[in-house]
């Protein structure tokens, strides 16, 4: 029996609608030709999770959210379908999260470590993982609260300033601003003076650079001087200073003993130092010797008689 054109057209439209529906569900993650196991999750707030949202395990889509039902006890029941190929151990947790800023909410299953596998239609514990926007909002809330408090305090401060700033205070402020302006002009003048002296300052800097360059060029000589100085100090430190000090102390002791003997009149030096008569005799002898030498200079013929020819010369009286 041949089909009419209308029947063929209707059949093609039905097939197209079916293909589009199957493709749409497939793109959403539903696999109409495979069986799934259902599980139930209960949330206080689904945070924008929608039916047909993906269910992931370690980033791989393994199912979808099939139904979201608001319960009478203010709990939200979420029914998920997971492929039978995925085994969910006990301790698995269902978490609502946001993959990124632009994506919708999804559900991911954090698998437990138990060897016991959950049965179909079992209840899975839940939690909510804050997304990037939630984290930003959570960080902004304290900042906004603090900003509000700061604004209130600033308003109070401004009111206090308006109360304090009477006519006399305002006049004082004007005078202070005038003084500040004068100070700034003086500072500008000082800056101009410094600019005029910048050439001399540059010369000083060049001289300093030249000195440092000379020091760098003579670093070998400086090192030699320091080496010699270190060697000298090492020799001094190694010298037998203790022995020299002991010898000097012994010499001083002997000198002190000698001076004691002299003071007591012991020995020749002691007798000479303490015998007054000997001193007087020596003084008298020296005086006589001076007179003799003086007379010898004046009348040498009295003491030296040398005659080669003729008579000896007569001394003047």
From TrEMBL:
<keyword id="KW-1133">Transmembrane helix</keyword>
<dbReference type="InterPro" id="IPR052336">
    <property type="entry name" value="MlaD_Phospholipid_Transporter"/>
</dbReference>
<keyword id="KW-0812">Transmembrane</keyword>
<dbReference type="Pfam" id="PF02470">
    <property type="entry name" value="MlaD"/>
</dbReference>
<feature type="transmembrane region" description="Helical">
    <location>
        <begin position="9"/>
        <end position="27"/>
    </location>
</feature>
<dbReference type="InterPro" id="IPR003399">
    <property type="entry name" value="Mce/MlaD"/>
</dbReference>
<protein>
    <submittedName>
        <fullName>MlaD family protein</fullName>
    </submittedName>
</protein>
<feature type="domain" description="Mce/MlaD">
    <location>
        <begin position="37"/>
        <end position="110"/>
    </location>
</feature>
<keyword id="KW-0472">Membrane</keyword>
């Amino acid at each position: 029996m041949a089909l009419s054109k209308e029947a063929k057209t209707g059949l093609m439209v039905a097939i197209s609608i079916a293909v589009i529906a199957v493709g749409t569900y497939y793109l959403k993650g539903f696999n109409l030709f495979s069986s799934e196991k259902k599980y139930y999750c209960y949330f206080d707030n689904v945070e924008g999770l929608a039916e047909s949202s993906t269910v992931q395990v370690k980033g791989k889509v393994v199912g979808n959210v099939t139904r979201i039902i608001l319960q009478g006890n203010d709990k939200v029941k979420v029914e998920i379908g997971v492929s039978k190929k995925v085994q969910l151990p006990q301790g698995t947790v269902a978490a609502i999260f946001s993959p990124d800023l632009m994506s919708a909410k999804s559900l991911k299953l954090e698998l437990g470590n138990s060897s016991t596998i959950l049965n179909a239609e079992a209840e899975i514990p839940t939690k909510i993982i804050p997304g990037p926007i939630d984290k930003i909002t959570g960080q902004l809330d304290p900042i906004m609260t603090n900003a509000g408090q700061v604004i209130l305090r600033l308003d109070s401060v401004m009111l206090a300033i308006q109360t304090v700033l009477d006519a006399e205070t305002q006049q004082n402020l004007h005078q202070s601003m005038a003084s500040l302006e004068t100070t700034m002009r003086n500072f500008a003048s000082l800056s101009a003076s410094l600019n005029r002296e910048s050439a001399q300052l540059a010369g000083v800097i060049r001289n300093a650079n030249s000195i440092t360059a000379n020091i760098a060029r003579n670093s070998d000589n400086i090192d030699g001087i320091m080496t010699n100085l270190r060697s000298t100090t090492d020799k001094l430190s190694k010298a037998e200073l203790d022995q020299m000090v002991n010898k000097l102390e012994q010499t001083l002791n002997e000198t002190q003993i000698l001076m004691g003997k002299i003071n007591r009149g012991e020995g020749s030096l002691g007798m000479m130092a303490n015998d007054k008569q000997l001193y007087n005799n020596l003084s008298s002898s020296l005086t006589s010797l001076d007179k003799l030498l003086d007379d010898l200079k004046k009348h040498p013929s009295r003491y030296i008689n040398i005659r080669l020819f003729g008579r000896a010369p007569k001394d003047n009286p």
